[in-house]
Amino acid sequence: MYEHHREPLLSRKMFILRFALHCLVAVGVITVSLGIGVFGYHFLEGLPWIDSLLNASMILGGMGPVDPLASTAGKLFASFYALFSGILFLVIASILMAPIVHRFLHKLHLNVEEDDKDK
Fold first, then answer.
1. What is the pTM of this model?
2. Among candidates 16, 79, 74, 78, which has minimal Cα distance to 45?
3. Which terminal residue of the chain, N or C, has fewer Cβ atoms less than 10 Å from its own Cβ?
4. Which CATH number fits domain 14-113: 1.20.1250.20, 1.10.287.70, 3.40.50.2300, 1.10.3720.10?
5. What digits encode the pLDDT tens for the residues 101-112?
Protein backbone atom coordinates (compact mmCIF):
# COMPACT_ATOMS: atom_id res chain seq x y z
CA MET A 1 0.00 0.00 0.00
CA TYR A 2 2.89 2.35 0.73
CA GLU A 3 5.82 2.91 -1.58
CA HIS A 4 9.23 1.53 -0.65
CA HIS A 5 11.88 4.01 0.46
CA ARG A 6 13.79 3.42 -2.80
CA GLU A 7 10.75 4.37 -4.88
CA PRO A 8 10.00 8.01 -5.76
CA LEU A 9 7.74 10.11 -3.58
CA LEU A 10 4.05 9.74 -4.40
CA SER A 11 2.53 12.64 -6.35
CA ARG A 12 0.44 15.14 -4.43
CA LYS A 13 -2.73 14.00 -6.21
CA MET A 14 -2.10 10.34 -5.32
CA PHE A 15 -1.24 11.32 -1.75
CA ILE A 16 -4.54 13.18 -1.39
CA LEU A 17 -6.33 10.14 -2.78
CA ARG A 18 -4.52 7.90 -0.28
CA PHE A 19 -5.42 10.24 2.58
CA ALA A 20 -9.06 10.33 1.43
CA LEU A 21 -9.09 6.53 1.49
CA HIS A 22 -7.74 6.55 5.04
CA CYS A 23 -10.44 9.08 6.02
CA LEU A 24 -13.07 6.80 4.50
CA VAL A 25 -11.74 3.85 6.50
CA ALA A 26 -11.78 5.98 9.68
CA VAL A 27 -15.39 7.02 9.04
CA GLY A 28 -16.30 3.37 8.48
CA VAL A 29 -14.69 2.31 11.75
CA ILE A 30 -16.47 5.12 13.60
CA THR A 31 -19.82 4.19 12.01
CA VAL A 32 -19.48 0.51 12.95
CA SER A 33 -18.41 1.45 16.47
CA LEU A 34 -21.33 3.83 16.86
CA GLY A 35 -23.66 1.08 15.64
CA ILE A 36 -22.28 -1.30 18.27
CA GLY A 37 -22.98 1.30 20.94
CA VAL A 38 -26.48 2.08 19.72
CA PHE A 39 -27.48 -1.59 19.58
CA GLY A 40 -25.88 -2.27 22.97
CA TYR A 41 -27.72 0.54 24.71
CA HIS A 42 -30.98 -0.28 22.98
CA PHE A 43 -31.03 -4.02 23.60
CA LEU A 44 -29.12 -4.29 26.90
CA GLU A 45 -30.36 -1.17 28.66
CA GLY A 46 -33.73 -0.85 26.92
CA LEU A 47 -33.25 2.78 25.89
CA PRO A 48 -35.17 4.18 22.91
CA TRP A 49 -33.18 4.35 19.66
CA ILE A 50 -32.56 8.10 19.84
CA ASP A 51 -31.37 7.91 23.47
CA SER A 52 -29.17 4.96 22.55
CA LEU A 53 -27.64 7.02 19.76
CA LEU A 54 -27.09 9.94 22.11
CA ASN A 55 -25.41 7.82 24.78
CA ALA A 56 -23.23 5.94 22.27
CA SER A 57 -22.20 9.21 20.61
CA MET A 58 -21.34 10.84 23.90
CA ILE A 59 -19.20 7.92 25.07
CA LEU A 60 -17.54 7.55 21.67
CA GLY A 61 -16.80 11.27 21.72
CA GLY A 62 -15.27 11.05 25.19
CA MET A 63 -17.98 12.94 27.06
CA GLY A 64 -19.62 10.12 29.04
CA PRO A 65 -23.15 8.74 29.18
CA VAL A 66 -26.22 10.95 29.42
CA ASP A 67 -28.87 8.62 30.85
CA PRO A 68 -28.44 6.85 34.18
CA LEU A 69 -28.06 3.11 33.71
CA ALA A 70 -30.35 0.77 35.65
CA SER A 71 -29.43 -2.78 34.66
CA THR A 72 -26.23 -4.66 35.43
CA ALA A 73 -25.92 -5.68 31.78
CA GLY A 74 -26.21 -2.05 30.71
CA LYS A 75 -23.57 -0.93 33.20
CA LEU A 76 -21.18 -3.67 32.11
CA PHE A 77 -21.76 -2.81 28.46
CA ALA A 78 -21.18 0.90 29.14
CA SER A 79 -17.91 0.22 30.94
CA PHE A 80 -16.57 -2.02 28.16
CA TYR A 81 -17.82 0.37 25.48
CA ALA A 82 -16.07 3.26 27.21
CA LEU A 83 -12.78 1.31 27.27
CA PHE A 84 -13.32 0.30 23.65
CA SER A 85 -13.96 3.94 22.73
CA GLY A 86 -10.73 5.07 24.36
CA ILE A 87 -8.72 2.54 22.39
CA LEU A 88 -10.68 3.39 19.25
CA PHE A 89 -9.53 7.00 19.56
CA LEU A 90 -5.93 5.80 19.23
CA VAL A 91 -6.82 3.56 16.30
CA ILE A 92 -8.54 6.39 14.42
CA ALA A 93 -5.64 8.75 15.10
CA SER A 94 -3.25 6.12 13.75
CA ILE A 95 -5.33 5.54 10.62
CA LEU A 96 -5.41 9.27 9.89
CA MET A 97 -1.76 9.96 10.74
CA ALA A 98 -0.24 6.97 8.92
CA PRO A 99 -0.13 8.47 5.40
CA ILE A 100 1.11 11.83 6.69
CA VAL A 101 3.89 10.33 8.80
CA HIS A 102 4.86 7.95 6.00
CA ARG A 103 5.14 10.79 3.49
CA PHE A 104 7.18 12.87 5.90
CA LEU A 105 9.58 10.02 6.65
CA HIS A 106 9.80 9.06 2.98
CA LYS A 107 10.64 12.63 1.99
CA LEU A 108 13.17 12.88 4.79
CA HIS A 109 14.79 9.63 3.66
CA LEU A 110 14.97 10.87 0.06
CA ASN A 111 16.62 14.08 1.24
CA VAL A 112 19.21 12.11 3.25
CA GLU A 113 19.99 9.90 0.21
CA GLU A 114 20.44 12.98 -1.99
CA ASP A 115 22.83 14.49 0.56
CA ASP A 116 24.81 11.24 0.65
CA LYS A 117 25.10 11.22 -3.16
CA ASP A 118 26.37 14.81 -3.14
CA LYS A 119 29.27 13.89 -0.85
1. 0.82
2. 74
3. C
4. 1.10.287.70
5. 998 888 887 666
